[in-house]
Specification:
The chain has about 725 residues and is of the alpha/beta class. The chain has 26 helices and 11 strands. Among the domains are: about 10-25 and about 450-705, Rossmann fold, CATH 3.40.50.300; about 40-60 and about 420-450, no CATH class; about 225-400. The two termini are about 25 Å apart.
Length: about 725
């Protein structure tokens, strides 16, 4: 048997909603199915590409490859400890790249084919007579490539003649080595000539500089200006130190004198003024004696009366000591002032001497500017002249020494076998390229085709789970297909509808739904067949079921039930011409009542939207266990949206290989905007005879129908 795909759990609904935002991104199982579905396209493309590769292989001209290896020395050999005129660092990346580019230049190629005699060989580019033409053609055959992390350069030549390939590679390598030697030799000779000329010029310049320096010494009457400058600078430093000491002493004396002068001008007592002159011994001694006598008088006044002779004598002595102190204080003030004035005079003298010495230093410095300039010029000219003489002698010797920085590490040899074409690799690349192009074409066709082919595509695009996948109904007539659940109860299609019925009964998100509306994107996707068979499946389970044909524009029950004429039905009920009981005219399956669409009205939308439809659905809910409504498609008309307010859930029909994702997405958007709940999608018309779909939808085996095949089918309704 076929166990159809089931996705009715809450987890599957959540997964479908999550996948809906990811676009058309297939997983590995879908990729495998996509490739298997159009495998013939990929195989045809792969076969064509493989054949083209095979033809090219047969028509290809064999080419031989020869390589000569050059080694760039890290340092030229040093026979003498002299530096060469052309001193290039072979470790420098710029030098290395220059060698690589020069090896592939046109002049180098012309020298190579001329020196090696290739230009005169008839088999070397026959038909070309000019050396320039042959050099340009040879450049197309040669390639220069440095070896990574080494000082080696590969000179590779590809040619249909193995001997020419090796000869040209060796010719290029040897031509560059010879050119490098010639260039270094000619450069050394030119350098010697230039050094001789410049040495004569600098000898004359040196003589003129010495004469100018001697004349300047005579004009300034100085044998050595450097020694004179040293003496002047020493004196200048000594005067500067003396001035600093004089300024320090003057500042100290000035501060003390000003402090004493302010107290004298303010009329301070002499005793207080004396405190500012503690370094005067005479003043300190006079003040101490006077204060001692004052203390003695105070002691005598405590013991004797004022008329006592000893007290009178002590007072007289105190007056004399006071006078002595005042005189000493005046002398100290005068001495302090005199010292301040003396220090000021001394500072001025030192300052004038310093200024005079500075003027002398400035004058000497101005003379030294010109003197040093002349002396530096003479010394520089002398150094340059000596360096040129030495360098000229070195260059004349080094230019004759053998010195090679580029060596031929390995000669090119004629190849014993062609390097291209390589049959195995060429055919393998053709096969791989063909398969890749074939797979790319398959996926190009897949992404350009917006028709649904797998349930994952439906779930990603619509955001709802695929409840079941119905096999393609292979009945000859529409009656056989529309009532296959009644006519053939052991078929895979019947079991698929039983699976859909089971999902509506056990899934937590669907089991409470009683009224189902079946719709699709466009006509011809099988919604009427699915509505009829689902209703029959409910009735076979013993549920009292009502099937309503609500497609008032293109009713299909006439052909499904095999009627000659369409009986009165929903159209007449909505017009008030017929009751619901009178419209139940089709009694073909037990527990199943059918209300056909009736006559086609001129305004179906107005009939479906009136209150009679609301009353009809309310009465039907009280009588029946399940109600299945076959509505119009979503695109183009609004009939289905008017019916959605009466139902518990919508079953959206998608036909494999027919329904377009763009239209279905728009239809699903209208369902959501109407406020109805889409319970899921039903994938119709899955061709299980296809190898791809057989693998894709029969993953769980098929054996459960053997019990039905051994017994006759039970009558419908039991």
């Amino acid at each position: 048997m076929t166990t159809p795909y089931i996705a009715g759990t809450n987890q599957n609904i959540a997964d479908a909603n999550q996948n809906s935002s990811s676009g058309r991104v297939p997983d590995w199982r879908e990729i495998l199915a996509i490739l298997m579905e159009r495998a013939w396209i990929g195989l045809v493309v792969a076969a064509v590409v493989f054949c083209i590769s095979f033809i090219q292989l047969k028509r290809a001209v064999p080419y031989y490859r020869s390589t000569a290896v050059l080694m760039v020395e890290a340092q030229a050999a040093k026979i003498l400890n002299y530096q060469d005129v052309v001193s290039l660092s072979s470790r420098n990346l710029e030098y290395f790249n220059t060698v690589v580019n020069m090896l592939h230049s046109r002049p180098m190629m012309e020298q190579a084919i001329q020196r090696s005699g290739l230009a005169d060989r008839p088999e070397f580019f026959p038909g070309m007579t000019s050396v320039v033409q042959k050099a340009d053609a040879a450049r197309q055959l040669a390639s220069i490539s440095p070896v990574e992390k080494s000082r080696l350069i590969n000179v590779t030549v590809e040619h249909s003649n193995a001997q020419i390939a090796s000869d040209l590679a060796n010719a290029i390598a040897r031509a560059y080595i010879q050119q490098d030697l010639d260039s270094r030799m000619s450069t050394s000779l030119r350098a010697v000539d230039w050094l001789q000329e410049k040495a004569g010029e600098y000898r004359q310049k040196l003589e003129q500089g010495l004469l100018q320096l001697q004349k300047y010494r005579e004009d300034t009457e100085s044998v050595s200006l450097e020694n004179d400058q040293n003496i002047v600078i020493a004196k200048l430093a000594a005067l500067n130190a003396a001035l600093t000491g004089a300024q320090t002493e003057r500042i100290d004396a000035e501060s003390r004198w000003k402090a004493v002068q302010e107290q004298v001008d303010a009329g301070f007592p002499m005793a207080q003024i004396a405190l500012q002159m503690q370094d005067e011994p005479e003043l300190v001694e006079a003040l101490s004696t006077w204060r001692t006598q004052q203390q003695q008088i105070v002691q005598l006044q405590q013991r004797y009366k004022p008329e006592f002779p000893e007290l009178q004598e002590a007072i007289e002595t105190e007056q004399a000591l006071k006078k002595r102190f005042e005189e000493a204080c005046k002398r100290a003030v005068y001495t302090l002032k005199a010292r301040y004035e003396t220090l000021m005079t001394r500072e001025e003298g030192v300052k004038k001497a310093l200024q005079a010495q500075e003027q002398l230093a400035f004058s000497l410095a101005r003379q030294l500017v010109r003197y040093n300039d002349l002396k530096r010029n003479v010394e520089a000219d002398q150094e340059i002249y000596q360096a040129m003489i030495s360098r000229m002698k070195e260059t004349s010797i080094v230019g004759t020494l053998p010195s090679e920085t580029i060596l031929l590490a390995e000669e090119a040899r004629p190849a014993s076998a062609p390097f291209k074409p390589q049959p195995r690799q060429m055919l393998l690349r053709g096969a791989v390229l063909g398969l890749a192009l074939g797979a790319g074409l398959i996926f190009l066709l897949y992404y350009s085709d917006h028709r649904f082919r797998r349930h994952e595509e439906v779930e990603r695009a619509l955001g709802v789970p695929v409840l079941t996948a119905l096999p393609f109904i292979a009945g000859e007539t529409e009656h056989e297909r529309g009532m296959i659940c009644h006519l053939d109860q052991t078929s895979e299609v019947t079991e698929a509808f039983r699976t859909l019925r089971a999902i509506t009964q056990v899934s937590p998100s669907i089991q409470n739904a009683k009224v189902f509306l079946v719709t699709s994107t466009q006509p011809g996707e099988g919604k009427s067949l699915i509505s009829t068979n689902l209703a029959i499946s409910f009735a076979q389970d013993g549920l009292k079921t009502l099937l309503i044909g609500a497609d008032l524009r293109r009713p299909a029950f006439k052909h499904i039930f095999g009627l000659k004429e369409l009986p009165p039905g929903l159209s007449e009920i909505l017009k008030g011409k017929l009751s619901m009981q009178d419209a139940l005219s089709l009694k073909m399956v037990s527990h199943l009542d059918v209300i056909a669409a009736g006559s086609i009205p001129s305004h179906p939308a107005e009939l479906l939207g009136n209150s009679v439809m609301t009353d009809l659905m309310a009465d039907a809910r009280t009588i029946y266990d399940r109600i299945v409504i076959d509505s119009s498609p979503m695109m183009g008309v609004s009939d289905a949206m008017l019916l959605m307010r009466h139902v518990d859930g919508v079953l959206f029909v998608v036909r494999q290989g027919v329904t377009h994702s763009l239209g279905a997405t728009h239809a699903m958007k209208k369902i959501r905007e109407s406020g109805a709940t889409c319970l899921g999608a039903v994938m119709n018309g899955v061709n299980l005879k296809s190898f791809t779909n057989y693998y894709y939808y029969r993953r769980y085996g098929g054996y459960a129908y053997q019990q039905y095949q051994s017994h006759p089918a039970e009558p419908a309704g039991k």
